[in-house]
Each structure stands twice: as structure tokens, then as C-alpha cells.
């Protein structure tokens, strides 16, 4: 594929994480009679208490809205959920488990809690405390009231609810509140309910540490601290570290790399605030995450939608610091240039650019590519092994198909599948998402990078992909090979942004996108997909089809179909 120049929605509100099974919605019956409903608040904040924030729900739910009985979930209009502090916890106006999760998280009480801190509004504090106590009273036995999906939402929100209860305790003291915090924290401390070294487990451990310190339970705080350290330095069960020695996150998703960077910053702060030692190696690995994320940005400033990632931009990353993230955010004007032009991460990434700006080529006009390999799909990854992304001539050329959230299971499965990525698909052979893909060779050189992958993810078939990413001219040369003892149909799939229009041609396909014009706009671009048939390969006609998904990036896919022989070899450039 080569390119010739003739002269894509901000980060959505946090999606619900994947299922976390907590079979009890941590509440206790005795807490209801420990103290009167309106225990006197105290303005003195315990020195060890750490409020970990509210995932943005405090900004969406002001004190006035909460006092009026309204709740606004991420990406949805406000809903009247309460009369005074009596909430109807069974509401489900959007038939959306994510909405249910955030309602039961209580993190929307962050608005009135922050209002009390800023203005001394005692009515706001009383509203937050009353709603929290109403949740405890009404959800003592959720299994008797709700179906499986609602109970899952309640269980998943337990750790976020514990954050809110701990934040409430900083300004409001009552025996029933301490009992509820202890019950939630004790449940999270049970080894059966620890999710492991990924974002769920990080949140659980971080919250457990903060809550244990807040109520003076050193045993609970120690459990949270130990799990945090082990997740990075000694991950249990043979899992990959939450942050490995190269700074790579283990969740195979750009979105969750950014999310986890922020959560681990909070974890480091909580360790220090709780008087625990922060390992130097943890600090070093956390700092290296900035470069790992920087490689997953385009020269235009977009975050690539690798794995389960919503469309976003690098300027949405909190506290970019003075290193590589600041460098890509300012397009080289500030910060520290990444240490390499191209890198291999053992977690399963080959990522590179023609450069980082300078040497006669502006930052925004550099080429950039990524490719995936490594362990099988995990956490928020997708089945994207051998998949490529490509940025050139000031715009995205090859893109992943993005992420739609967790409520529509059919679309989630479709976007996770190999067909949604720029990879080689083998028809009529079972696909194994647990299969690993090996990087068998690579060489980075000025003007061109080469790398090769191989796997047996499709039963009875060996896939091999070799890639040459060149700049000046900007070209990707891709040699794909599939070997099988039985005849197989093999397809080489390419997904372009929705702005492109593609058409099949005798030698492959051509796609074009118009420019936006004006200062800083993109120029019109034409991308040429040239197929080179190799001996022993039976070629099928080229096809192009527009995807049916219009949310965020609506990808356009050109799908040349190659091969029905036992050995299929195709070269696309």
C-alpha cells in the first residue's frame, strides 16, 4: 500500500468494567440501628483517610441535582431517582447495566460532598449521608429483590461504593458508616473476591488500602498494599504484571493503559499517605508508562483504539508531566522526546514512526504504525494479532474498528473478532483467541522498519505476516502466507476511516478521502492497495464493503480475498 497526497469523538464517560463477581452487596443489618439517621457531621478529617475521587460522576451530579433527587449516569440524561433521600434502587430507565452500576456505586454523591468541602453546605452533606444510608438499608439482601443482571451491577459497584463511603467519612462520622466501610472492605479482602493484577484488582486493592487506613484497620490496609505491590512485581497465578519492566500495561487496550496510569498514580499516593513504602521499581515502571502510551498516539494527537478503547485524544490524559506524553501533546514543543523511534514491547506491540518531528519533517506529517503480537487475548484486548494501524500524510489510513461498550454483546463480539482488524483471516478453520503470536524477526533502520510474525491461531493452519514500513515515500508492504494441509480461503482485511471511499480495481483497490482545508486541516489523500499474486495462489475478486456501525469511528473496510489453495501467499503494498 502506498499513499499520495494531492496538494475522528472525545473520550466517552467511563464504561463499566467487565464483570466482577461479588455475590454479596456488602451491607449489614446491624448498621441500621447503630446511630440515629442524622448523626452529627464532623469537619475534622482523619490524617490517614484518602478520598480517591468519583470517576467524574461528581462533575455530572451537582449538589443541587442530588438534593432534587436526580441522578445523571455517564452519557445519559438525568433521571429522577429519589424523593428526599429515599432512592428507588430498582430503577433501570435505559435497560443498561452500566447505568445501574454507576447508580449503585454512590459515586454521584461526590457532587454534594465536594460542595460541602467548598461552601460548608450542610444540607448537601446530609443529603449524601442520607442516600448512602438508604442504600445500606434497601440493599441488605439484593438477591431477594433483583435478578441476576441487577445483582451483578450491585456487586461490580462495591469497590466504587467503598470509595464514596470512605470519602463521606472524612466529614461525617457515624458508627453505621464505619460498620458499612468495614463490611465492604472485609468482603474485598477475602481472597475469593480478588480479581487479580488488572484494573479491577488494582481498584479493589487501592480502595482496600485507603479504607483500611481511614477506619484504622491495619490488617485491611496491609492486604490492599500487598496486593498492589504483588500485581506489579510478583503477579499471582502466572499472570503478566499490571505494569511490566518496559512500562507496558497488561490489558491490551490503549484506553485501559491510560486509565491504569491514573489509578497507579493514585495507588502510589495512597501508599505514601498510609505510611507504606513505595518500591522504587514501581515508581520506575509507572514513569515508563508515559512512553508506552505515547507510542499509541498518532501524530495528529489521537489515541489509537487498540483493544477495547473509545475514541479519544492525548489532551484528555490527566497530568501529562514533562516527559514523552507532554512531548506528543505539544507536538514536540515541550517535554522529553521518546527514547527511541521504534520499539518492540514484550507485552505484544511493535510500534514506530518515521520520526518525532524535526530533520525537515514536521511532527504532524510523520508516519506512524503499530502491530500486535504476543500472548492470547486478555482482559480488554481484542483478537487483533498481526493487525496493523497506519498514519501517514497527516491522517489515519488503517484503523481498528473501535469499541461500542459492554451492553450490546453482539456488537462487542463482532468488534472483538479478527474480521474487525487489519489482519489475515482464515475461513473454515476454528479460531483460538488464547493462541499466542510470535515475533520471529525484526530490524529497525532509518527510512524502513521490518518485522515478521507467525502463529497457529487458526486450527491446522500456520499464518505468517511480514511487514516493511517505509517512509519517503510512505509505504507499507505486507507479505501474508497461510499454510494448511487442507484447502483454505484466506482474506486480507483492511479497515479505513469512514471519511474514505474505496473502489475495487483490477490490481487491488483505491481509496480516497477529501481534506478539511484551512489552517491545520488535512489535505486530500489517496491510498492505493496493490495486490501481488504469488505462485501457487488462487485469487478471488477484490471486495469492498461499508461497515454498518456509525457510532464514533464508522470504519470502511476493503476486503481483497485471496487463496483457496493449500498454500496461499499474498503480498499487499
Q: What labels describe this entry?
A:
573 residues; alpha+beta; nine-stranded antiparallel beta sheet; five-stranded antiparallel beta sheet; 25 strands; 21% strand; elongated; disordered N terminus; disordered C terminus
List the helices and strands and how they pair.
Elements lengths: L1 E4 L51 H4 L2 H5 L2 E2 L7 E2 L1 E2 L2 E2 L9 H9 L4 H10 L2 H17 L9 H9 L1 H12 L5 H15 L9 H16 L3 H16 L20 H20 L6 H15 L7 E2 L8 E2 L10 H6 L12 E4 L3 E5 L14 E5 L15 E5 L2 E4 L10 H8 L7 E3 L11 E8 L2 E8 L6 E9 L4 E9 L6 E3 L1 E3 L4 E5 L2 E6 L11 E9 L5 E8 L9 E7 L4 E6 L1
Antiparallel strand pairs: 1-22, 2-3, 4-5, 6-7, 8-9, 9-10, 10-11, 11-12, 13-18, 14-15, 15-16, 16-17, 17-25, 18-24, 19-24, 20-21, 21-22, 22-25, 23-24
Helix pairs in contact: 3-6, 4-5, 7-8, 7-9, 8-9, 9-10, 9-11, 11-12
Task: Give the N-to-C terminal Cα separation.
Answer: 3 Å
Structural class: alpha+beta
Helical element count?
A: 14
Give the CA-based shape. elongated
Proportion in helices: 25-40%
Radius of gyration: 26 Å
Mean pLDDT: 84
Q: How many strand segments? A: 25
In what range is the share of β-strand residues? 15-25%
Main sheet overview: 9 strands, antiparallel
Oligomer: single chain
Task: List unreliable stretches of 5+ residues.
Answer: 2-48, 547-573
Amino acid at each position: 500500500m502506498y499513499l499520495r497526497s494531492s496538494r475522528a469523538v472525545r473520550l466517552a464517560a467511563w464504561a463499566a468494567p467487565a464483570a466482577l463477581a461479588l455475590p454479596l452487596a456488602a451491607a449489614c443489618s446491624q448498621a441500621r440501628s447503630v446511630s440515629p439517621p442524622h448523626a452529627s457531621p464532623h469537619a475534622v478529617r482523619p490524617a490517614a483517610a484518602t478520598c480517591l475521587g468519583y470517576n467524574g460522576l461528581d462533575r455530572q451530579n451537582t449538589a443541587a441535582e442530588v438534593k432534587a433527587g436526580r441522578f445523571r449516569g455517564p452519557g445519559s440524561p438525568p433521571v429522577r431517582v429519589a424523593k428526599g433521600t429515599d432512592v428507588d434502587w430498582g430503577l433501570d430507565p435505559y435497560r443498561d447495566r452500566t447505568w445501574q452500576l454507576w447508580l449503585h456505586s454512590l459515586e454521584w454523591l461526590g457532587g454534594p460532598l465536594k460542595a460541602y468541602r467548598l461552601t460548608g453546605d450542610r444540607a448537601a452533606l446530609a443529603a449524601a449521608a442520607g442516600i448512602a444510608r438508604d442504600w445500606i438499608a434497601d440493599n441488605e439482601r439484593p438477591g431477594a429483590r433483583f435478578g441476576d443482571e441487577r445483582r451483578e451491577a450491585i456487586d461490580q459497584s462495591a469497590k466504587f461504593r467503598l470509595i464514596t463511603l470512605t470519602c463521606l467519612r472524612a466529614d461525617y462520622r457515624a458508627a453505621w458508616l464505619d460498620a458499612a466501610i468495614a463490611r465492604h472492605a472485609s468482603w474485598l479482602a477475602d481472597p475469593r473476591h480478588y480479581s487479580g493484577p488488572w484494573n479491577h484488582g488494582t481498584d479493589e486493592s487501592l480502595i482496600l488500602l485507603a479504607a483500611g487506613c481511614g477506619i484504622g484497620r491495619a490488617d485491611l490496609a496491609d492486604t490492599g498494599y500487598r496486593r498492589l505491590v504483588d500485581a506489579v512485581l510478583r503477579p499471582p497465578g502466572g499472570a503478566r504484571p499490571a505494569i511490566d519492566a518496559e512500562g507496558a500495561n497488561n490489558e491490551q487496550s490503549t484506553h485501559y493503559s491510560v486509565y491504569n496510569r491514573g489509578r497507579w498514580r493514585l495507588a502510589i499516593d495512597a501508599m505514601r499517605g498510609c505510611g507504606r513504602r513505595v518500591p522504587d521499581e514501581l515508581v520506575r515502571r509507572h514513569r515508563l508508562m508515559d512512553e508506552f502510551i505515547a507510542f499509541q498516539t498518532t501524530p495528529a494527537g489521537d489515541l489509537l483504539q487498540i483493544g477495547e478503547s473509545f475514541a479519544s485524544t492525548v489532551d484528555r490524559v490527566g497530568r501529562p508531566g514533562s516527559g514523552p506524553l507532554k512531548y506528543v501533546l505539544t507536538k514536540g514543543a515541550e517535554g522529553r522526546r521518546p527514547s527511541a523511534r521504534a520499539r518492540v514491547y514484550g507485552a505484544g506491540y511493535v510500534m514506530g514512526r518515521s520520526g518525532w518531528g524535526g530533520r525537515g519533517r514536521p511532527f504532524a506529517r510523520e508516519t506512524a504504525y503499530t502491530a500486535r503480537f504476543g500472548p492470547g487475548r486478555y482482559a480488554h484486548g481484542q483478537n487483533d494479532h498481526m493487525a496493523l494501524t497506519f498514519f501517514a500524510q497527516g491522517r489515519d489510513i488503517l484503523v481498528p474498528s473501535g469499541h461500542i461498550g459492554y451492553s450490546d454483546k453482539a456488537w462487542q463480539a463482532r468488534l472483538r473478532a479478527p474480521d474487525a482488524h487489519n489482519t489475515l483471516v482464515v475461513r473454515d478453520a476454528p479460531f483460538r483467541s488464547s493462541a499466542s503470536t510470535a515475533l520471529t524477526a525484526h530490524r529497525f533502520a532509518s527510512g524502513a522498519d521490518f518485522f515478521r510474525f507467525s502463529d497457529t491461531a487458526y486450527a491446522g493452519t500456520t499464518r505468517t505476516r511480514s511487514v516493511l514500513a517505509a517512509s519517503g515515500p510512505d509505504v507499507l508492504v505486507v507479505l501474508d502466507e497461510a499454510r494448511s494441509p487442507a484447502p483454505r480461503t484466506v482474506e486480507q482485511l483492511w479497515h479505513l476511516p469512514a471519511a474514505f471511499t474505496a473502489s475495487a480495481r483490477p490490481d487491488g483497490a483505491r481509496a480516497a478521502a477529501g481534506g478539511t482545508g484551512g489552517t491545520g486541516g488535512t489535505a486530500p489523500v489517496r491510498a492505493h492497495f496493490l495486490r501481488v499474486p504469488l505462485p501457487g495462489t488462487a485469487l478471488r475478486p477484490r471486495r469492498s464493503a461499508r461497515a454498518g456501525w456509525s457510532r464514533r469511528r464508522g470504519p470502511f473496510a476493503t476486503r481483497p480475498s485471496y487463496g483457496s489453495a493449500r498454500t496461499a501467499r499474498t503480498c499487499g503494498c
